[in-house]
Amino acid sequence: MIIILTALPCETQAVRRHLDGIEVHRHRAGTVFEVGGLARRPDRRIALGTTGMGNLSAAALTERAITEFSPSAVLFVGVAGGLQPWLRLGDVVFGTKVHAFHGGRSTPDGFFARPNTWSASHALEQEALHLHRTDGWLPARERAPGVYFAPIAAGEVVIDSLGSPELVRLRQNYNDAVAIEMEGAGCAQAGHLNSTTQVAAIRGISDHADGRKDEVDDRGWQEVAAANAAAFAVALAAGFPAADEQDQDSRRTPRPDPPAVHHTNSATGNARVGQQIGVIHGGFTVENRGDR
């Protein structure tokens, strides 16, 4: 089981289009989840939930979903504002980190940030990198969206002005962030409290936080960004091994024996004859521009 959470109805619908055999699952406290199989992999069960906007709601409902379903992974999927000019509308960002950027201390001498940051699950990030290399997830559109692996900032306000004080502080203290949203920190905190659950945020760029949000939303970019993020997320969910599959893989893979080391003595001292091991490093190119 993998949980996919969203904040907005358009984000939920974008994920829902990839599910078959959807059934309603009602939590005893009233939260409604939809559970179905992925269209491309019916045996992979997905629990889909909508948290609403904000980190507090996201944290509470992520914790609730983890407790209810005991998933192998939680993906928070939706739209975000782009903070870098090289990000195009519709591009996808996998959050290698999530910064909760509103924490700090305000004094007569200025604002002093008190950072709280969570890294994405290593296993999820590795699977996402592999998925990106294969390009098997790409939606059928004229322009394929770019995929970037970089930090994301999560706050409590919608920023739509380049002169916003929050945006100024963000760039001063978290200038590696390439996108901004409102739920990733809450989801990451809930994942942190459940150490066996792997968590990541996947976002599509729907605006540039530059005062033109309403304009680009009216042109349909929010739906496009949500669809691209959902396509990447469900492809990641389809390929991500469940906990029992990971255990089976580890049992099937034999551990190599350590190289033998032989010792001989000579009249002039001890000489060690050992097996020399060469390591070949293979490389690949990944879109990672978080330092720009």
Could you characterize what this model shows?
The chain is α/β, with parallel strands linked by helices. It has helices at 9-16, 55-69, 122-134, 165-173, 184-193, 213-218, 221-239, 243-252; strands spanning 2-6, 19-26, 32-38, 41-50, 73-82, 92-100, 104-107, 110-113, 117-119, 147-154, 179-181, 198-207, 261-266, 269-274. The protein contains eight helices and 14 strands. It has a five-stranded mixed barrel with strand order 5-11-10-6-12, surrounded by five helices. Strands 7-8 form a two-stranded antiparallel sheet. It is globular. Mean pLDDT is 85; it is low at 247-253 and 261-292.
Question: In summary, what is this structure?
Answer:
The chain has helices at residues 9-16, 55-69, 122-134, 165-173, 184-193, 213-218, 221-239, 243-252; strands at residues 2-6, 19-26, 32-38, 41-50, 73-82, 92-100, 104-107, 110-113, 117-119, 147-154, 179-181, 198-207, 261-266, 269-274. The protein is of the alpha/beta class. The chain starts with a strand and ends in an 18-residue tail after the last strand.
Strands, helices and their partners?
Elements: E1 2-6, H1 9-16, E2 19-26, E3 32-38, E4 41-50, H2 55-69, E5 73-82, E6 92-100, E7 104-107, E8 110-113, E9 117-119, H3 122-134, E10 147-154, H4 165-173, E11 179-181, H5 184-193, E12 198-207, H6 213-218, H7 221-239, H8 243-252, E13 261-266, E14 269-274
Parallel strand pairs: 1-4, 1-5, 5-12, 6-10, 10-11
Antiparallel strand pairs: 2-3, 3-4, 5-11, 6-9, 6-12, 7-8, 13-14
